[in-house]
DNA sequence: CTGTTAGCGCATTCAT
DNA sequence: ATGAATGCGCTAACAG
């Protein structure tokens, strides 16, 4: 293993000089010495020891990223954005996965603290459990008191810098758009009752319906993933109701729900409209393509890092809005299509020259 | 920031003792001292400095993982498997993304070397470019000569431990299964001509057709991602041919091809059968669900780490096989369905009690 | 502009 | 079983 000292010796210069040309900031080094050092380093295959640098400088170049599930496109998009941003800053990213266990999140913060990560990014919904939140805050506090910076992508409940998606507003807008298609009776596949993201989206959706003078939605809880959506949809099918439109609080659940509906022989959107939330791009591909509220996920990852890297005293909050994207999975209710009310064709025509089934603009 | 020395002082013991109880291996420490150290550490919120440990021990606990694109499920599945395995070994994972640029892969190895990663995992297709391979080998050599361990998930062309998917064989088996449905004229959306993975899969497919006495497939090259598949399918549509079955050399391309075919009004599988390769689970959800060759991606990530962690002198190779999974996107050719030849129903019935559209077993 | 030196936090001999 | 001392590779004063 080649060290700086080896390079210095081979170049016939001092340790300090070698350090200055290879890793130093100010370049007060003569041209010839510089060349000698550089050639010696190349010849010996010298690679800095970043851990030694961290120790000597008292600051590392690693960003710790904590997500819940790498397989979920929601998180892989955020992670991609964060990793690219870290790369732009010349930093490397250490990735930890909680598998949706809040306790693991705490353990990972401790691990990343041990790694001397310069910043820790926490992505994913916070929970409505004060005991958990207290333990999370405690671990973050010891990390921050050691100089660590923290940013959360999610709800602002930990006293950190936060990139906060406007879940309530996005769901509200979505409900308005769906009601605009003629729907009056809705169901919400509402996710787990403790997840703040699920709660906020459900609430926003319900508030819109209330404001429009429509009956409150039928709520069906379940897991926050594909199978949760599948199960919730199955339970919905087993109930007696007049629902014509279903809102799954995230895209994964919507995907599962779509599969379930297909198995039940329910035609989407003819028999039932279906929409999700997040805007993970895979939603273009199922048939029918799924309506959603699109969040700028990759950008949110980058924003979180930038937030954490520009230090301020008081924690800051940055909101990001979602954009309602109506696609083939939503259309007017069946009772409307035979009546005078028929705002637009529910399905795009097959057309070779058209772009891939991206988005139809939301109608207000 | 609390150091071991602080803990030692507060506990009234020596640095060495504190080190032994908190991070040491052998536990030759009295019970009372142990308790005092532990309580002091807890009280002060002590967290080890892993970078200092790395320096002192001369060995780190980070595994460096290099993938091409985190958004591609192929890589997020591998990464998930590798991260879980690293976690089991008490190691953390630093993730780098090349965006399919071989030069960036080299740079990332250097970065991870600087980070003093104990092992580096390289996932993704190698390229058929001797100049690139030489530079990659050179960088890996300096890393290994410094004590680093390397494993590759892909082709065994870098002289490293390797987890090698049987791409040729998987494509061969797929071709046999598709020919068994009655197809005689095939096209292959063959990906970039320099990607070994694309080459191997194309070759295996072609070999099977030759062995069966069928004409060679029509080859259409393009990028290795969704849009590449989309474009290739469009170009295929513009050609005059008697193709009844299309093989896209990875799932992403198959997904894009499916979208393109839909735009052209081509019914799958009635007008054209379509299959992919990789077995990323999202393929269950598009309609029709896509046939593929399923690789145990998460397990491959874990295998690579285990391989790199158990040191041997000679580089080893572990092959993994893919499993042909026929789904709704493949069926007998149109000319066969009206004739005597009709091996099975091409589409599963809509059935509420059935499982999600997983797999039909491959027919030999 | 260049060289000398003192730590950074910890593991680990080596004594005791 | 415990403590004192050395060094891991590097940066950053400080001195020339």
UniProtKB/TrEMBL annotation, chains A, B:
Entry-linked PANTHER family: LACI-RELATED TRANSCRIPTIONAL REPRESSOR, LACTOSE OPERON REPRESSOR
What's a Gene Ontology MF term here? transcription cis-regulatory region binding
**Full protein name:** LacI family transcriptional regulator
Alphabetically list the UniProt keywords: DNA-binding, Transcription, Transcription regulation
SMART domains with a match to the protein in the record:
HTH_LACI
In what residue span(s) does the HTH lacI-type domain sit?
2-57
Say yes or no: keyword ATP-binding present.
no
Q: Where is this region: Disordered?
A: 341-364
Keyword Transferase present in the record's keywords: the answer is no
Q: Which CDD domains match?
A: HTH_LacI, PBP1_LacI_sugar_binding-like
């Amino acid at each position: 293993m080649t060290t700086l000292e080896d390079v210095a010796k081979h170049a016939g210069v001092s340790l300090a000089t070698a350090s200055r040309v290879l890793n130093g900031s100010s370049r007060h080094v003569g041209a010839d010495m510089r060349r000698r050092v550089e050639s010696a380093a190349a010849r010996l295959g010298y690679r800095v020891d970043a851990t030694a640098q961290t120790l000597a400088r008292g600051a590392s170049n690693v960003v710790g990223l904590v997500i819940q599930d790498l397989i979920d496109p929601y998180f892989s998009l955020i992670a991609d954005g964060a990793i690219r941003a870290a790369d732009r800053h010349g930093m490397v990213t250490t990735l930890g996965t909680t598998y949706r266990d809040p306790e693991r999140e705490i353990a990972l913060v401790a691990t990343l603290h041990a790694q001397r990560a310069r910043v820790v990014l926490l992505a994913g919904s916070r929970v409505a459990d004060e005991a958990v939140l207290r333990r999370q805050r405690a671990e973050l506090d010891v990390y921050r008191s050691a100089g660590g910076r923290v940013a959360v992508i999610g709800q602002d409940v930990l006293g950190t810098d936060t990139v906060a998606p406007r879940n309530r507003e996005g769901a509200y807008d979505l409900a308005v758009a769906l009601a605009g298609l003629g729907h009056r009776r809705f169901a919400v596949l509402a996710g787990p009752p403790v997840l703040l993201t699920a709660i906020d989206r459900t609430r926003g959706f319900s508030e819109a319906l209330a404001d429009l003078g429509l009956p409150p939605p039928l709520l069906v809880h379940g897991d926050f993933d594909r199978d949760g959506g599948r199960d919730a949809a199955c339970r919905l099918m087993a109930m007696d109701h007049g629902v014509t439109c279903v809102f799954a609080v995230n895209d994964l659940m919507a995907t599962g729900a779509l599969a379930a509906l297909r198995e039940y022989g329910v035609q989407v959107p003819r028999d039932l409209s279906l929409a999700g939330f997040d805007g993970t791009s895979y939603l273009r591909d199922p048939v029918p393509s799924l309506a959603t509220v699109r969040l700028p996920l990759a950008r949110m990852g980058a924003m979180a890092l930038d937030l954490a890297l520009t230090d301020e005293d008081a924690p800051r909050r940055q909101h990001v809005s979602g954009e309602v994207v109506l696609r083939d999975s939503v259309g007017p209710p069946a009772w409307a299509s035979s009546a005078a009310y028929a705002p637009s064709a529910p399905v795009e025509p097959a057309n070779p020259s058209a772009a891939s089934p991206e988005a139809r603009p939301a109608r207000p």
